[in-house]
From TrEMBL:
Residues 1-23 form the signal peptide. The lineage of its organism: Eukaryota, Fungi, Dikarya, Basidiomycota, Agaricomycotina. GO terms for molecular function: hydrolase activity. It holds the Pfam family Abhydrolase_4. This is TAP-like protein-domain-containing protein. The keyword Signal applies. InterPro entries: AB_hydrolase_1 (IPR000073), AB_hydrolase_fold (IPR029058), Pept_S33_TAP-like_C (IPR013595), Serine_prot/Carboxylest_S33 (IPR051601).
Length: 581
């Protein structure tokens, strides 16, 4: 659904989530979740409570809605209700082995922790071990947590807005693309102000960090255990800086430079992006034509083919009809799809290689299907969509968190030029990290926490960074680590966004040891991955002989490691990880 919303709007910055990322403003991932679990559970049936009360939900999970102050400066006033979902620890809570809840955050901003638990909670649980509950929440303003941010009167208006004015523009698609983004962004800010019911100003990371502390306390615990990805690293760093004595275990993975984030700059994310794309080209050369259908003998030749495809789509977009939807494959779609595949190379590189090869033979269906979502239907069932996850929540967090930015078009151009001087992916990033949407944001007082990110925490932080992460460069993990005494940066020698984008037993064992035993890796530890991105084609896609080879690869592992490896590979191969993963 790239075509229905600007790429980012929702999962900007750190965009974690490539999938939902693509699946638009109207993105029914909340509704998808509801449909998948059409048992009798409904969030409407849970009354928000001051104490933590778990209700059975979905299949074998528990859900709760915890009341927290809407405004922490007026704690006895109105409440917000935070929606939470958990997977219970395998060991009983009264066992001496039980280690309490780990809060997992898929980032965004705007991603749903409740959906994250649904899709990946079980695998996360396998990684950290049976001693922990895995808990995900929808941060205030987002999806099932109330009050919700909404700048549109209904779903139809929201979808029309993004499909007619936005459309996944990349700044390089035409001479007026940036000007259009600017104009659209001015409207977004204005609508946000006009439709504000008075609650919008309370939706930001400072208050979400306070909510996280409430969640910890509601569990009867003193200190947090947390694993946050991408923008979830901003939340983690914010929590650690605000409440340094409340840190039990805190992992931030795919680390954002929080200072740059709170400055609303989005300007130093792309340091390693080109490395990931280069890895696609070189990986394809190494993999050969069977595993990589767009193969040529050199990277330069593959690049030339891709450039020809860009040119061709610029001149002649291609109509596509599939069994479930239809749309137009154009330059923007190709650019956005390639960018998103850099987040999850182990899931998408083989598919991308096939889709590009098909495209050069005139068949655009494969490329279209990478980001295909169901055609928007304007449902009359308001209940079904009342907790739908929409762009508005993520934008509220981004714009309330960040410092005010200039409304001038010239300044937007200057920002773009500066980005472009450092990265050829600046054109996609201008909408992926949608800071322009904040230009005309209502002028709420900026009293929220925005640093400094310096603290002696009650337990040292573990930061995890990949050597080639498309949007959260390793550099940022090293920078953030300087402020938190005793923290260690674990380097994963891989491409992709966040550690879970690539299968590494080594990394995930360090993370398990950290949570379970409080052991940090030695400074300078580097973990490698257990397979390459084009190997995925072997196991997943029925290439002859692939099954056997995959078995051999798994052969040398202990039963425990094999279980872990399966979880880790499953995460790396999943397309729709709502993380930046
Ligand atoms: C661009 O790259 C240079 C050199 O790596 C760096 O010093 C500068 O901060 C970068 N600019 C931005 C906006 O990231
Ligand atoms: C185009 O690609 C799609 C998806 O891979 C495939 O199902 C379809 O058969 C192809 N169409 C033609 C005409 O080859
Ligand atoms: C951390 O502790 C050191 C040593 O006690 C002290 O010098 C430093 O100021 C502390 N930093 C913060 C941010 O409290």
């Amino acid at each position: 659904m790239l075509r229905q919303a600007r790429l980012s709007s929702r999962y900007l910055v750190l965009l974690l989530t490539p999938w939902p990322l693509l699946s638009t403003a109207s993105a029914p991932d909340a509704s998808k979740a509801a449909a998948l679990n059409s048992d009798e559970f409904s969030w409407h049936k849970i009354a928000p409570s001051d104490e933590l009360v778990w209700h059975d939900c979905y299949s074998g999970h528990q859900c709760a809605r915890l009341k927290v102050p809407l405004d922490y400066e007026n704690p006895d006033g109105a409440s917000a209700a935070i929606a939470m979902r958990r997977i219970h620890s395998v060991v009983p809570h009264d066992s001496p082995e039980y280690r309490g809840p780990i809060l997992a955050s898929p980032g965004g901003p705007g991603a749903s922790g409740v959906d994250f638990i649904q899709q990946f909670g079980h695998k996360i649980s396998v990684i950290v071990g049976p001693e922990f509950d895995i808990v995900g929440c929808d941060p205030r303003g987002i999806s099932r947590s109330t009050p919700r941010a909404s700048f549109f009167e209904d779903r139809a208006e929201r979808n029309l807005f993004w499909s007619t004015s936005g459309n996944s523009i990349t700044a390089s698609s035409s001479d007026d693309a940036l000007a259009r983004m600017w104009a659209q962004s001015m409207l977004v800010g204005r609508l946000a102000g006009e439709r504000d019911d008075g609650n919008l100003r309370f939706i930001h990371s400072d208050y979400t960090a306070r909510d996280m502390l409430r969640i910890v306390e509601a569990h009867g615990r003193e200190k947090i255990q947390y694993w946050g990805f991408s923008y979830g690293s901003v939340l983690g760093a914010t929590f650690a800086a605000m409440f340094p004595d409340k840190v039990g275990r805190l992992v931030i993975d795919g680390v954002v430079d929080s200072e740059n984030y709170y400055a609303a700059e989005c300007s130093n994310n792309l340091m390693d992006t080109e490395k990931v794309w280069t890895a696609f080209l070189n990986g394809c050369v190494d993999a050969g034509p069977t595993k990589c259908p767009i193969y040529s003998p050199t990277a330069a030749e593959i690049q030339a083919t891709v450039d020809d495809l860009y040119d061709s789509l610029r001149k002649r977009p291609i109509p596509v009809r599939t069994a479930t939807s239809y749309g137009i494959v154009d330059y923007d779609l190709m650019r956005n799809t390639i960018f998103v595949s850099l987040y999850k190379p182990f899931a998408l590189f083989p598919t991308l290689a096939r889709a590009l090869a098909d495209l050069s033979a005139g068949n655009a269906t494969g490329l279209y299907q990478i980001s295909e979502a169901p055609q928007f239907k304007c449902s009359c069932d308001l209940d079904e969509f009342s907790f739908e996850n929409v762009n508005d929540g993520g934008l509220a967090v981004l714009c309330n968190d960040g410092k005010r930015i200039s409304k001038s078009f010239e300044d937007a151009e200057k920002h773009y030029r500066n980005l472009l001087a450092n990265s050829s992916w600046a054109d996609v990033w201008m909408s992926a990290c949608d800071r322009l949407a904040c230009m005309a944001w209502p002028e709420f007082p900026k009293t929220n926490f925005h640093g400094p990110f310096v603290a002696n925490t009650s337990f040292p932080l573990l930061m995890v960074g990949n050597t080639a992460d498309p949007v959260t460069p390793l550099w940022a993990a090293k920078k953030m680590a300087q402020g938190f005494s005793g923290s260690v940066v674990l380097t994963q020698d891989s491409i992709g966004h966040c550690s879970l984008a690539a299968p590494s037993l080594c990394t995930q064992k360090h993370i398990r040891n950290y949570f379970r035993d409080g052991v940090l890796p030695e400074a300078g530890t580097v973990c490698s991955t257990d397979s390459g991105p084009f190997d995925a084609l072997l196991e997943g896609q029925g290439v002859e002989g692939g099954g056997e080879e995959a078995q051999v690869v798994l052969g040398g592992f202990s039963a425990e490691d094999r279980t872990l490896l399966e979880a880790v590979q499953g995460l790396a191969r999943a397309w729709d990880v709502p993380l930046g993963m």
